Amino acid sequence: MVVDGKGAAVRKAGWIVLGLTVAGLMTGCAGDPPAKQHHAVESKPEASHTPKRELPEGMHKLGESVTTEAKTWTLSPSTLTPVTPTSSAKGLPRGWRAAKLTWTLTNQTGEIQQLLDLTPTVRYGSMGRSAVTFTDTGIPGMPDSISSDPPRVKPGGAYTVTMGVAVPADAAGDPVTITTRPRTMFGATGDVAFFEGPFPGAPARKDVVLHPGPAAPEAKKTLAFGEWTSDQQLSVGNVRAEGTGDDGRPVYGADLTMFNDATDGSGPPYTPMKTAVRVYYGDQLKEADLVGALVPTADETAFIAPQRAATHHFRFALPGGTRPGTVTVEVRDLSTTLVTFEGKVSNRSS
C-alpha cells in the first residue's frame, strides 16, 4: 500500500504520542522498577483471610522453630488444632474449649542429651489470662524430665510430645501466648522463648495488645483500682463479689495485671510477674484471708512477652457479716512493697 507524505506525517505523529505515553509509564531511570508494576504488587490480595500479625521482636509464631540452650536444642511447636475431649481428660474445666499442639525437641549436638523440662506457661487474650493444660487419651502432656531416669535423646534425634490447651468458650480466636524457659536436673534455667498463635474455632482476632490507660502521677502514694503505676506496667482492678465460700464467708476476687512495654531487643526481652499480694479491709486495715493459689512465686516460667500482658486472678475472704467497705491491696516483690491500690467494692456479685 502506498502512503502519501501527509499520511506518513500523521503516522509518525501517532508513533511519537505512543512513545510518550509508554515513556510516561516508566520511572525515567534505567534499572528502576516501573511504577505501575510496583503498585500492582502492593494491591495483590492476600491469599488467606486470616489477619496478618506482626509479632514484636523476641516472639515467634506457633509453627516456627527456635534454637536455644547454646544451640543445643531446637524447639518446634505446632499450631493449635481443635480436639474433642474424651471421658479420660484430666485438668479440663467444664465448658472450656480444647485444643492440642505438638512439641518437637531436636538434639543438635553429637552427644546424648537429657530431655529439657519445658514446663510451658500458657496465656490467652489481650489481658494475658491463664489458660490451662490438660491430658487425655493421645495427649500425654509434658514428661517428667527432672527425675532419676529422664527421657534421653540421641545425637541428631528428636523427641515429640503432645500437649493439651484449654480456654473459656468465648476465647476462640484469641491469641494464645506460650512461654518456655527450660530447666535441667541441675536446676539451671535456660533461654526464655515466646510463641503465639490463635486458638482455633473462630477467626483470629486482631486486637492482641493491651493498651494500658494513662498512668497515675508518680507522686501519688496510693492508686485507685484500675489505675496504672507511673511506668504503666502494673494495675489492680475488676474487684468484685464472687459469692460465698465453703465456710460461709463472703468471697471477693480481683485481677492483678502486668504489661511488658519492651518493643525491641535494646533491653530485657521479658519481665517476671510480681510475686505476692496482701489484701486489707476497712479503715483499720485488717488483713483478709487469701483463697486458693497466690500470685506465682519464684516461677521460672512466669515471664511476659514483649508488648503483652499477664493477668493473675486472686480471691480473698472476709469475716461473715462484714461489709466490704474500702479494700486495700499491696503488690509485693519478696519483702518489698511495690505499689498499693485502694477502692470500694460492693456485695453484689457480677
Features:
350 residues, mainly beta, six-stranded antiparallel sheet
Helical percentage: under 10%
Helical stretch tally: 2
Let me know the number of strands.
Answer: 24
Main sheet summary:
6 strands, antiparallel
Order of helices and strands: HHEEEEEEEEEEEEEEEEEEEEEEEE
Stretches where pLDDT is under 50 for at least 5 consecutive residues are 1-51
In angstroms, what separates the terminal alpha carbons? 92 Å
Overall pLDDT metric: 81
Judged by helices, strands and strand pairing, the structural class is: mainly beta
- Which geometry do the CA atoms define? globular
Beta-strand share of residues: 35-45%
Write up what this structure looks like.
- The protein is 8% helix and 35% strand.
- A hairpin with a 4-residue loop joins β18 (276-281) and β19.
- The N and C termini lie far apart (92 Å).
- The chain is globular.
- Strands 2, 3, 4, 5, 9 and 11 form a 6-stranded antiparallel β-sheet that branches.
- It has 2 helices and 24 strands.
- The model is unreliable at 1-51 (pLDDT under 50).
- The protein is mainly beta.
- The protein has helices at residues 5-25, 35-42; strands at 59-61, 66-68, 73-77, 81-82, 97-107, 113-114, 121-124, 129-130, 132-134, 152-153, 158-167, 175-180, 193-198, 222-224, 234-244, 250-259, 271-272, 276-281, 286-287, 289-291, 303-304, 309-317, 326-333, 336-344.
